[in-house]
Amino acid sequence: MSDVSNIVSAGELADLFRARAWFGALEASHQDLVLATSRAERVDSGAWIARRNAPSDYWLGVHTGLLKLAIYNESGRSCTFSGVPPGGWFGEGSVIKRELRKYDVVAIQPSVVMLVPSATFHALLSASLPFSHFVIGQLNDRMGEFIASIQNHRLLDANARVAQSLAQLFNPRLYPSTDLTLAISQEELGYLTGLSRQRVNQALQALADLGILALAYNQIKVLDLDRLRQYGLDQI
C-alpha cells in the first residue's frame, strides 16, 4: 500500500470522509484534523493491507470493495474472522490499546481503503463526544459479530453458515453502505465461510431455490433479508 499512484487525491479523500456518518458528526476543527492526517489508497485483490503482529498504526475503513480479517499460519492455512464490506471500519480495539494487530487484513476484491492514523484516532477519542459514542457502538457491535461467528461455525450446517456469513455483511451499524446486490464470487464467499467453492455453490443454490437469493455471475442479490438473517438459527 505504498505505491503513490494508488493514493487517492486530497479532493477525493474529502468526499470519501464526508460520506461517513461519524465524520459528519464531528466539529469542523476535528474534521480538518482527519482530512489533514488521513489518507485513502486503491488496492488490488489479494493485497495485504495490514499484517498480524505489526503495530496498529491506523484505524481502517472500506469505501469500496471487500476485505477479510484472518490469521495465516506458517503452512499457509488460514482462519477468517470477518469480512468488511463498504462502509465498515475496524481495528479500533488494537488502536485503543496501542497493541500489535491481532490479525492479517487482506483485500479479496479491488478496494479503496481509508486510513486514519492512530494519533488522530486518539485525539478524536479524547476530545470528541460524538466520536467516542461511535467507537463504543463499534466495539459493542463487533463483539456481537465475533460471538455470532464462533457460534455459527460450531453449531450450524454448511447452508446455514453461508446464509449467516452473508447476513453479517448487512449489519446496518457496522456496514451501513452494503447494497442488497453484492458483487461477490463463490470463491470470495468461501474465504469468509471457510468452505470450498463447490460447497458454497450448493448452499447458494439451496437459498436461491427458497427465494431468499437470486444468483448471477459473481453477483448475489438478496431478495428477502429477514429470511436470510433467520435462516438456520433454529439449529442453535
TrEMBL record:
Q: Which domain of life is it from?
A: Bacteria
Q: Does the keyword Transcription apply?
A: yes
Instruction: Give the CC-aspect GO terms.
Output: cytosol
Note the InterPro entries from the entry: cNMP-bd_dom, cNMP-bd_dom_sf, Env_Response_Regulators, HTH_CRP, RmlC-like_jellyroll, WH-like_DNA-bd_sf, WH_DNA-bd_sf
Instruction: Name the coiled-coil region(s).
Output: none
Q: Where is the Cyclic nucleotide-binding domain?
A: 22-125
User: What name appears for this protein in its UniProt entry?
Assistant: CRP-like cAMP-activated global transcriptional regulator
Which source organism does the UniProt entry give?
Achromobacter agilis
